[in-house]
């Protein structure tokens, strides 16, 4: 009887298909998840009561954070399913749930149309997104790791690690593309829905690809041997030794990694747009360019962790974050701060227009542009109806030098993100046995990232707002940084003392 052999090149092609199929689906899920945060400023006006811009913005950030808070529940529900039924079908379900929720957000009428039902529906859909993501990442990372050859799991799982940042990058790119095509007014009116609705097409493509995937070989092996866990939740968290590993992974690694991830990308975007008042387009271009520059380092640090170990790379990223956040954000703030810069008064321009709104009231709009010697400019726009006090909106346009310096400072933060995030998938999957791996690794990852990390934009912004007093109405612009610094510092200390510097193991059972 003839035997069939599989060449190494065939195995390698199969492995790259596994990585590509897993990564595309995970990228789309992150794209869906991060659209909400990327459009927080607009969504606050669409789905929440108007009148207090700060309260509305914090409401959106709280809704954004709600999607993170439920991720651990998704990890438990889908982790159990993944350890009982299989990796492939579980994260196929999460993809459908995420895509459907995102598509639905694009169809929800605004607060002006359906009142309090608008935020209630959006919060519900956001919670479904969080549940879906809670099951997606653990499945994708586990699936790739269980296909990867010994000694290279850090390298191969690092491609899954790029998908979170690439998902954010794609969401920013789609938003800017739609906004550029429709124009600012049309985009702010209804065009913001397009990126959400577009999700349905992306998810359909990913589902088609994932249906062609086979089950993980390690899971297939224990299934054939009848060694599948009957109760993955009990074995993961009821077993003292395994629970100890779960807690160590959470407090010694994923909590610190989570706050570094969200500070370096999402809070950076919030800080530049809201605190520094840099305009919408420039803010997202700065983040997008930094992500393009930094993303390949996820793969580099994943590969390097196979050589020198996971721990030291992750701990170095956390320590650098603790030491650098305050000085880096001070430099970012100074780049956009026009109070200490000399204005070129002779270049100042003022334009006014008068029109009539739908109610027949007279509307006067004015735009004043101030220019400064460092190349920055400030555009102040105001609209006045009848004798009402005009609402003034100020946006800073960074000059070329300051713009690229801002890109450099955000890129530095993205480098720290790649250090803590690149090796962590391999670190987590190697920590737990196959029969409870999906459940065991998913929970600490999603508590660290979903709760500790996901709350970063909200808590940091809230700390900044709380720092405002009558004596100091501007507040401390850097008050929000104390939260990620404290969490990253605590994780660094715990991780340095209790984690082993694990390199790629030859056998993963």
From TrEMBL:
Gene Ontology CC annotations of this record: plasma membrane
Location in the cell: Cell membrane
Main location: membrane
TM stretches of this protein: 15-36, 56-77, 89-108, 114-134, 155-178, 190-211, 245-264, 284-305, 312-329, 403-431, 443-461, 481-499
Topology of this chain in the membrane: Multi-pass membrane protein
UniProt-listed CDD domains: MFS_ShiA_like
Major facilitator superfamily (MFS) profile domain mapped to chain residues: 18-503
Pfam families referenced in this protein's UniProt entry, alphabetically: Sugar_tr
Alphabetical keyword list: Cell membrane, Membrane, Transmembrane, Transmembrane helix, Transport
Superkingdom in the source lineage: Bacteria
Recorded GO MF terms: transmembrane transporter activity
Family matches, as SUPFAM superfamilies: MFS general substrate transporter
Protein name from the UniProt record: MHS family MFS transporter
Protein's organism: Chryseosolibacter histidini
Lineage, highest ranks first: Bacteria, Pseudomonadati, Bacteroidota, Cytophagia, Cytophagales
